[in-house]
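Quick check before the chapter quiz. The format below is the same one you will see on the exam, so make sure you can read both the input and the output lines.
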Amino acid sequence: MRVPRVTYRLQLHRGCDFDSAARLVPYLAQLGVSDLYLSPILRAVAGSTHGYDIVDHGALNPELGGEPAFGRLAATLRAHGLGLVLDVVPNHMGVDPDANPWWRDVLENGQASPFAGFFDIDWHPVKPELRGKVLLPILGEPYGTVLERGGLALALADGTIVVRYADHTLPLDPREVPHVLEHDLDTLRTALGGGHPDVVEYQSIATALRNLPARDGAGDEARVAERQRERAVARQRLGRLLAASAPVRGHLEGVLATYNGTPGDSASHDRLHALLDAQAYRLAYWRTASHDINYRRFFDVDRLAGLRMEDPRVFEATHQLLLRLVSRGPVTGIRVDHIDGLFDPAGYLGRLRALLGTDATWVVVEKILAAEESLPASWAAQGSSGYDFLNEVTGVFVDRRNRRAMLRIYHAFAGLDDDFTDVVYASKRFIMDTALASELNVLAHAASRLAECDRHTRDFTLSMLRHGLREVVAAFPVYRTYVTAEGTSAADRSAIATAIATARGRNPTTEPSLWDFLGTLLLPDATRPEHLQFAMRFQQYTAPVHAKAIEDTSFHRWVPLVALNEVGGDPVRFGVPIAQFHAANLCRQRQWPSTLLTTATHDTKRGEDARARLAILSEMPGTWDSELRAWATVNLANRSVAEGRAAPDRNDEYLFYQTLLAVWPPGAIAADGEVRERVRTYLRKAAREAKVHTSWVIHNQPYEYALDRFVETTLDGDTTPRFLARFVPFASRIARLGMLVSLAQLVLKMTSPGVADLYQGSEGWDLSLVDPDNRRPVDFASRARWLEELRPLVDPPEDSDGARVRALGSLLATWEDGRVKLAVTAIACALRRRLEPLFVRGVYQPLLARGARASHVVAFARRYAGRVVVVVVPRLITRLTSDTRPLPLGPAAWPDTTLEIPRALVGAAPFRDVFTGRPRSAQVRHASATLALADVLADFPVAVFEATERAEVGHASSVRRSPHTGR
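Here is the expected output.
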């Protein structure tokens, strides 16, 4: 298997297409990237900025340049020796009825569509009016209002009668079209004569359509095929007739006008209403979706419908192009999007591996792991997309000792006393009562049907079962379990037991046997296939509830330190001990050595360097508290009153200050228009996600206006000079310290077990916020120019005259432009290329620091085939620096602190730092050797040393002897 060294994620869209990507390949090759990693490239909804709303799995996206441009990109990648990693989206499709032919066929033919089984549609839903129909919640107002205002109308399109609404065109069930064709038919007969060939053909078409097999022919392949064939013939005949006969076309247009009615005349819309009511879809106001939707969605996004990927027909139909790209094209790896949305993730990965060839293609999955959760070992994948590493490495730079102080500051400022667990519980219940209520209702009815089958459980009411399920989901400790016919893992049993026990404890007055019954449903035995089906459907529900309630709601309601409020993060876990970071890396090295390591993605809430800055706040709670209070006092006049309450509330104001610190441009003394707009847009989005004062469903305009006004007047108003006089010095300090954290986390990512991933532009400073902010254009021209200038630093390390140290010193002195991060990235990429086997298969060995600053360093070694790399980075940097010592270098920062190196790692040649090029000698004491951190980190704040193992080179002749022991 070809495992990438370093991947580079690029977000494609109309403004950044295949040819744009091809132009970047030389730069990426020079940077040291091994694989270009693209967002989805299949045909998506027109104008898509992300590509996850695929409408055709058999075609490349024409907006990206289609097959010709992709061919040019493939050729360029081959010429530069780069691989290509694709983002594959098996869980859902975009269901724009004009763009997705499969979905349009379902709307036209219902269960008689050959694609009816492709989408995860409940054709027998709880609401009887939806039996055999798909709820289509696309209307901007209630159905009756839209209909009688003339918002829905019949029209001719390419010789076919369609329904127009806004920019949508919807098909009609062909068996219902004769009602339209035969309306006022006598007028046409009178005009042309009953025996006229055009009239005869017109009537014959209507008869043919009426005789089509009905929509209830699901499962009868012959009837489905007949309906498809004869419908197409009739449509062609009608198109030819309308094109050839102006009288017939004129007559039909008049009929359509009659059907469309007169705005304001309710009765005139009855015919159209009756026709629409007979379709395989039910048009509805978009707000009905949360309670009545009967197809599985991507979370609560109505325009993304779930696919039944467990059906082999669906898998085959959606993966043929992918197979071609892997077998004949440049594709070397795959990232599987939203694996938790699938009915059977393990089964999907098994089929994918069989399709692509056993162990032939590198595959990682987008899986968000809770604390202490592991990726299922049986999955046919090389690892996850890296959120676990992201949160571990962030936690390394958070000072755990100040957790209580930071919470006291937050609670006092925001006026809140809830802990995060309570916020999550309330958020989960809120999501299940609103956005994802329909799915819970379906589960409750399914549980009720199963309860009725047993005399011991038939007395459980629907209300009791819905309540019980809601409480179990609200208590679920992980995104989902993976119960299948193959059995249940110990991890799954533990998660379900924990959820049921927690739900039982929260609801002491609930009938105790209810929890036992739910346990039998969620942990079914092999003799109860109907229970297994329920359990597997339940698993598809807990993941979106967990994500919506935590990432999209709780993370915006509870914000003591938003560096921790990241995808897959747990804000309760305030910091990660060094030993825990090492343990996680050791586990990865043993079990998932080819997993992805990331610190920023298209889905992260904040850019990696924005997050690094905010971690610094955990080191200085006292200073943070005093600054907060000073800023709030200055900005008190900028708050407004919205609907009788102060706006923004203190929680949103607290988030505002953290956000401003995160994105403040290095060296800036004022916020320009771009910064103000980015912060304003973000805070409005965050407030809607929190769903406290406003939401995406109902916009509370007074509150949102007050929030906008606060941002504008704070950053460009009468109080701005006083605010900035206090804010800018603190922001500058945080930015400088955050720069050091950024370099340290970058080095850890580039040297830990796994495949290092770079998000577009993050080789420079990444101070972005959540999308769409993190998809802003990147100035690649400047980066390419800088990289060329930095080429001497990227060459193998050697520095006899100190030129490298002086160059690095210059980059640190001008760190604001981002060149120092680009240099570290390129040097680390070059090291991974030079010692690729070591980073793919090398042993991971934690190293111990001793002395006054031992808790301020993370260090480890990687070993393979006689080669050694030693990694040393600082942490909790505030105490290592001062106003007069801005960098944590030399004896002043590292007094009496040493790093222990196993003697076997100390070869004849000295350690050589890949950044400075300078050699460093170890002092041997007994069975180990030591490196003085004042020496290791004398010239640059991070260090990575290359060396050879003692076993390979024999006696370590250049090792400095200890004067005290003579050894």
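If your answer matched, good. The chain has five domains: 6-91+307-385, 101-298, 420-551, 603-736, 779-961.
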